[in-house]
Amino acid sequence: MSVDETTEFTETVGRYLRSSGDSKQYRDTAETVLGQFETWLRRRDLNSFEDLERDGGQIIRRYADRLNQRVEADGIAASTAQMYYNVISGFLGFCVRDGVLSRNPATTDRAREPLPRDDQDRTQQFWTPDVRRQLVEYTNERACEAIEEDGLDATQAVQERAFVHVLAYTGVRGAEVFRVSGDDREGRQGLTWSRVDRESWTFRVWGKSQSWEDVSVL
User: Fold this and answer.
1) Entry's SUPFAM superfamilies (predicted)?
2) Is a pLDDT exceeding 70 seen at residue 5?
3) Distance separating alpha carbons of residues 17 and 27, to the nearest angstrom
């Protein structure tokens, strides 16, 4: 990118972040993801919006493949790769509305094809679909019974149900959401409400890559 092109890209990112609602966690994540994307473009001498307009489908497909490589190297989770891609797609959609692109190249099946499937990562816990279903149903039933019997005091059963759902459907590891005894590092003190974003349906964990990752619960 030239200086002018870099400035245009950075300014457009800034407009996108300012338009992204009240979720500070999402804005922080998007700023990081888009910064990485800009660096990736610059290292390949791509001219930002001009190249995205002309060869956007191929460029985004290559970036999706790069995200898949990071997953295969255990750098990020498959769900994180999907979330990063969605951030880029959201930004490119904004670029269309902002008038710097005529179409969003990230929305095509061809561009998305190299992305890892979420369920590839979510089955790493070695729970078969049947075992997962039985465990979820069991904790659901226990929680319902406890609520009927104890009302608002049924905290343990409800908490256990929440933990099982998180582990079963997000692909996170226990060490990423539970307090680790003897480990005083930030991110190993258990999942707290301060790292949960209820607007974007994500929460932040200290991942396998030894960096913060945003996990979607959708």
Assistant:
1) DNA breaking-rejoining enzymes
2) no
3) 6
